[in-house]
Amino acid sequence: MDLSFSKEELAFRDEVRAFFKEAVPAAMRQKMIEGRHPTKDEMVEWYRILNKKGWGVPHWPVQYGGTGWTSVQDYIFNEELQLAPAPQPLAFGVSMVGPVIYTFGNEAQKQRFLPRIANVDDWWCQGFSEPGAGSDLASLKTKAERRGDKYIVNGQKTWTTLAQYADWIFCLVRTDPTAKKQSGISFLLIDMKSKGISVRPIITIEGGHEVNEVFFDDVEVPVENLVGEENKGWDYAKFLLGNERTGIARVGMSKERIKRIKQMAGQVQADGRPVLDNPRFRDKLTAVEIELKALEMTQLRVVADEGKHGKGKPNPASSVLKIKGSEIQQATTELLMDVIGPYAAPYDIHGEDGSNEAMDWTAQVAPSYFNNRKVSIYGGSNEIQRNIICKAVLGL
Amino acid sequence: MDFDLSEEQRLLKDSVEGLLKSAYDFESRKKYGAEPDGFSRAIWGKFAEQGLLGLPFSEADGGFGAGSVETMIVMEALGRALVLEPYLPTVILAGGFLRRAGSAEQKAAYLPGLIDGSKLFAFAQLEKSSRYDLGDVTTTAKPQGDGWVIDGDKTVVLNGDSADVLIVTARTKGGQRDRDGIGVFLVPADANGVSRKAYPTQDGLRAADISFNGVVVAADAAIGDPAQGLPLIERVVDEARAALCAEAVGAMEESLKTTVEYLKTRTQFGVPIASFQVLQHRAADMFVALEQARSMAMFAIMASDFEDAKERANAIAAAKVQVGRSLKFIGEQSIQLHGGIGVTMEAKIGHYFKRLTMIDRTFGDADYHLARVGEAGGVI
Ligand SMILES: Cc1cc2nc3c(=O)[nH]c(=O)nc-3n(C[C@H](O)[C@H](O)[C@H](O)COP(=O)(O)OP(=O)(O)OC[C@H]3O[C@@H](n4cnc5c(N)ncnc54)[C@H](O)[C@@H]3O)c2cc1C
Ligand SMILES: Cc1cc2nc3c(=O)[nH]c(=O)nc-3n(C[C@H](O)[C@H](O)[C@H](O)COP(=O)(O)OP(=O)(O)OC[C@H]3O[C@@H](n4cnc5c(N)ncnc54)[C@H](O)[C@@H]3O)c2cc1C
Q1: Which of A165, A211, B22, B369 has the least C-beta neighbours within 10 A?
Q2: 3-state helix/strand/coil string of chain A
């Protein structure tokens, strides 16, 4: 048992850290620190900086532009990115549809889509959830009927994150209405510019626009955009969701937030002393820090296990990462609320992402707190994660 | 980075677990607890035979030169089987003092008996007013001739009743809570002026209140510098805290396992109660709490080798917080999920709960360590 990084790993960390220090655009970094959303252009610019460095799709196989890093290196990269802080590679392309395409797609699809994902020439979004299909995803109803060399798609997706920016959407659609739930589903790649697609914003609780409804009205999709085999989409979705869960602990992000909380709590005064010196606040903060330290160790255990037994194998401990990681993220936003107390109240009515740059940092504190309720709901809700632990670990 | 055990460590784990599996089921434990010392001398002899008592000592001192990971393996196994034998006071605490600061003569005089199982030890540290503060010491050691005279009262000395040798903290100068002026002394339990009042503890172990009345010991009774013993005490106690975290992980793991098995076998409303999702999710939360505690116990074990005293203390304190919180949740919910049977002496689960509860209170509970970590500026 050796819980420290090797010399090579430490050198790698320094290299990554040094690069981020110099390469992350300052304005975007500041937005990230304050919990505001970078614009699409800022994000694309950043992704292209990463891609130019060869780190656009770090955990992909080398033949598709990946780095060949070990699990530990992947981990260090993600950590440093979150600590920087800077946006992580756009999950929908890089962690979701990309791996599905290089694992199950055909040669033409690989050549057509993968390089454009790496450079974010295409912005992808995820069309899985529907009004009637949330946790019970397999009950989805959006249907695709084969007509000649086209599918005709009708139905509705919802909660589609950043669909307003998207060039492409990957969808689970029902291709065999007679088959049992999971068996009649296919995985389709759909151009967002297709005729018959309309996108309607959903404004989230804090006033931001990050999710949407996407409607499909007789949308024509060429059959060459089917990934893998027809009616095998559920297998690909399971593979994709497995990848989604492992990155979800967000240890680096929470560490960065803790640093910020300490900094702010050192400045904001309550009862004639910094909030940081209030024992009740201090105890709450320390408790979260300790949970986070524990989560970091748990995450490292999962990473080390991946290193030994291969990256692909889903580890039921990743449900622990999701549950604790989301709870801690939520707790950090709550602590910042505690820091500013009554000054959390002013609501920023300007700016479509709820961030008026004329207002000071406190304007973003309550929105982050409200918005972060989402992290225990998406990516497999925390209740679903408990179901997974019961089945996969406890045999209940 | 590597969390796996080495081949040798795996063998150690198999052999401890093998021994406990064959000799330490819940019924046997009851028998051992009823023996005169409150534990089994025969089992203690087996520990000696298997080399467990000599594990952390250097080969030159007659031990095996094992490290903190080996201690973790043993403590976890002891926790899983809810072992009564005084491994913590003898091997971890007394052994820790001798190993880290004992003179060649002290090691030669005491270690062979410790390692072969013939001599038992206890750490006489806690006082009525000291609570969790290791630097709060009223027992005095005054120079006399070229030796010392010890006076004072110690309480809840684990294994204090059957120990042959006591390791006593005593003030050689300064006020009650001064960091300076604390010494660590080896005192034979049968020395003149030592009196012991023994009792069982809530978790089925044994302890004693021990009074020292003009107890005369020689100069060579002092371990290390008699005026500057606190850093040594802190170091050894930190190791004991890390060991307790590992013991707690073993006990929590067994509690969860036992509870999950119970859920599958207990039928109410015509179905196994395991079919109720509210109980399933409680068990899942217990699993999360266990894994978080396990992670921090590993962190503590690693930290017990840190040379930087502040870093070490802070890391181990953080672990004690996590373990303290996890054990409370797992302990209490294990009982809850057992229903009425959980609150009986007859059921094994309650004994785990009681041991876990007392582990939290040994060398600082979760709240105590939470404040320490906070004062140190956190762990992130
Ligand atoms: C901000 C945000 C962004 C999102 N982005 C996307 C996206 O880009 N693409 C996409 O496809 N989807 C996205 N989603 C959808 C997300 O995956 C779903 O919200 C999630 O699957 C939960 O579904 P639901 O909201 O319908 O809740 P429901 O499934 O209706 O759940 C309601 C409550 O019941 C609980 N519950 C449900 N089933 C069980 C069960 N079996 N046992 C115990 N409890 C249960 C849930 O935990 C929850 O507490 C996003 C969601 C949010 C909030
Ligand atoms: C100290 C003590 C004194 C008592 N005194 C008396 C007395 O004087 N007279 C008398 O008649 N009885 C008495 N009882 C019995 C008491 O009423 C039962 O213990 C109680 O009804 C629970 O039943 P059980 O212990 O069999 O647990 P179980 O019913 O087996 O429950 C085990 C666990 O499963 C949970 N559970 C059970 N069913 C469900 C469900 N449908 N959904 C979700 N969770 C479920 C329970 O909450 C519990 O956590 C006493 C019990 C105790 C502990």
Answers
A1: B22
A2: CECCCCHHHHHHHHHHHHHHHHHCCHHHHHHHHCCCCCCHHHHHHHHHHHHHCCCCCCCCCHHHCCCCCCHHHHHHHHHHHHHCCCCCCCHHHHHHHHHHHHHHCCHHHHHHHHHHHHCCCCCEEEECCECCECCCHHHCCCEEEEECCEEEEEEEEECCCCHHHCCEEEEEEECCCCCCHHHHEEEEEEECCCCCEEEEEEECCCCCEEEEEEEEEEEEEEHHHECCCCCCHHHHHHHHHHHHHHHHHCHHHHHHHHHHHHHHHHHCEECCEEHHHCHHHHHHHHHHHHHHHHHHHHHHHHHHHHHHHCCCCCCCHHHHHHHHHHHHHHHHHHHHHHHHHHHHCCCCCCCCCCCCCCCCHHHHHHHHHHHHHHHHCCCCCHHHHHHHHHHHHHCC
Domain count of chain B?
Answer: 3
Cα torsion through A261, A267, A269, A270, rounded to 10:
20
Assess if residue A113 is contained within a domain: no
> What was the pLDDT predicted at A304?
86
For residue B140, give how far its alpha carbon lies from the nearest alpha carbon of chain A (Å).
34
What are the tens digits of pLDDT across the range A65-82? 999 999 889 999 999 999
Q: Is the pLDDT of residue A353 over 80?
A: no
10 Å Cβ neighbour count for A323?
26
Indicate the number of domains in chain A. 3
Residues B158 and B250 in one domain: no
- In this prediction, the answer to ipTM > 0.90 reads yes
**Bridge partners of residue A147, in order along the sequence:** A150
| Interval A282-302: pLDDT, tens | 999 999 999 999 999 999 998
In a shared domain, residues A54 and A173: no
**A329 Cα–ligand 1 center, Å:** 18
- Per the CB < 8 A criterion, the answer to whether A91 and A247 are in contact is yes
Same domain, B255 and B361: yes
* Among B residues 77-96, those touching chain A with beta carbons less than 8 Å apart: none
Q: Are B380 and B318 in contact (CB under 8 A)?
A: no
* CB of B290 closer than 8 Å to CB of B79: no
pLDDT of residue A244: 57
CA of A388 to the centre of ligand 2 (A): 28
Assess contact for A343 and A310: CB atoms under 8 A: no
pTM: 0.96
CATH code of A81's domain? 1.10.540.10
**What is the domain extent for residue B344?**
231-375
Q: Which residue of A12, A278, A385, A396 is the best one to mutate when testing the B interface, meaning the one whose CB has the most B CBs within 10 A? A: A396
Per the structure, the complete domain to which residue A214 belongs is given by 124-231
Q: Which residues pair with B267 in a beta bridge?
A: B272
Q: Is residue B133 part of a domain?
A: yes
In terms of domains, do B348 and B287 share one?
yes
Residues A39 and A159 grouped into a single domain:
no
Q: Which of A285, A290, A320 shows the shortest C-beta gap to B322?
A: A290
Residue B2 lies in a domain: no
